[in-house]
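Re: export button greyed out
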Amino acid sequence: MNTNTSRQNPAEWDEDAQLLSHTARDLPMGRHQFHKERLMARIQQEQRTRTAAAPEKAGRFRLSRPAIVLPAVAAALTGAVIALVAMPAGNGAGGGGVATGPALTTTVGAATTKGVPQLLDRISLAAAETSHPAVKPGQYIYIESRTADTFTKTVGDKTTLASHELHRRQIWNSPDGTEGWLIDPAVNDSPEGETLSLPDEQGNPREAGLNGPSYDYLAKLTTDPDALLAKIYKEEKGHGNSPDQQAFTTIGDLLGESYPPAELYSALFKAAAKIPGVVVVQDAVDAVGRHGVAVARLDETSGEREEWIFDRKTHVFLGERSVQVKENSGEDALIKPGTVTYTSAIMNRAIVDGIKQTPSQAG
Amino acid sequence: MEVSTQLRTRIRAGDSSAFAELFDSCARAVYNHAFRLTADWSTAEDVMAATFMEAWRLRDRVDPEGGSLRPWLLGIATNTARNQYRSNRRYRAAASAAAAAELSVPDHAEEVAERVDDRRRLAKALSALASLRRTEREVVALCLGEGLDYEAAAEALGIPVGTVASRLSRARKKLRALTEDEAAAPAVRTTPKNVRGNREAGRPGRQIRGDHAHVVRPVQGGNR
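Workaround output, generated via the alternate export path:
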């Protein structure tokens, strides 16, 4: 099993593997036997009651605490529980639905620290002025984007750059974040998409946070830029390549696929203006070719620059992208400066009345 | 190979004793793999249990030819775990909570320095895993954690071998950068030889265990 992959450096391999050596342990006392017996009971139960119901139709298994697995199985058989588990069989893993093409490239725009506060100030003002419909219970936040990315691909011993072509991504979320649906052919296994309405590991509804913000969570967040930034630094401590880069990325993620209330939107830009190392890029292009001005920050570790792109006149947020700006070494040297490693343009944000409903259908 | 093919045939046929064997030989690997992807031992146990239930359900999709079924199981586990943390931010939150928990356990007088060191290393591994993208973490968990080769990892994830290679290469670069950053900090590394004898911790991906006792000992390596 472990013998036929050529690895350039077995010593390094062992060293990397060593990092994970403490993540292995036995099941707690008695649990191996406990779960084995449950599996056997389940199999025997099904063998006894095998009827016309093909195993294919039996529904998927929702994760639940051990004590309630069997009732959940019964519910699954009636079709009441639909917890989607991506299909591992065949070519079932995500990403199969999007064509791949050559690397995406762009001209690396010149960056300057001059005018950063002024630009963010204008963006913040523009954000505060936008009207934002209130979300009523039972409605969903719908966000549609176009996205693409570049990655290295190895066939045999030849490594080349490839990309997922630009494709549409649609996401629906309930205001409390407990219900959702995602359609993104680069992620989904089936064209219908997949549910995001999944409980946490305790079987409880997901709790929203900075790491998985719901609309309701964002609406309650402080709009004081200093307090907001302090919260971001505190909660993201220890993550990312540097605290400043992580704060910038966190705000970037909140801008992208969410629909924050205008006050918070505005506060996020004011907070971003306080992060060291933030620059302005005068010309940046979003995923669908719209030119704009970007607020950006270079991740010194990866050599990638994250750019938030805004319309030059209206200062409306168009999208974000990551551009390699520094030379890489090793295998990643293929990712030359000017390579767009990820890009996403926001096409539509709306409040809709039903999950999987688009704004045009609502009218 | 003979044995693997036989087991595959029995699994496809829904032979319950084949599932018992599969469980005995792979439960621990699936459990550990799930932990690396969920950063929580109790969730990992749930994922492990769900994985075997799912394997039973998907038994007729098993390819009749082939080697160990471990990559197939790990693939199912990966997908099951993925549903726990669709957002990488959630994983990072869990990993950081788990790492903090490992480090904050009060030092008991009788606790040997070695155990404290173990916990520090576990916390470090979690932080390292949290620094990766989900797709990178999955490949790292399969290849470095469970010792699958590129082909087996590709089979597990249903992606091309080249994608496994490129993701892994990227991830390892990140991990090494991380280790170098921490080189300045007080060293928590020990050499592989220094690993304790009472629990497996050495080369991952081997199914030969240390002498940690199960109530019932797993059948060893029947399907490899």
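The two ends of chain B are 7 Å apart (CA to CA). The button fix ships in the next patch.
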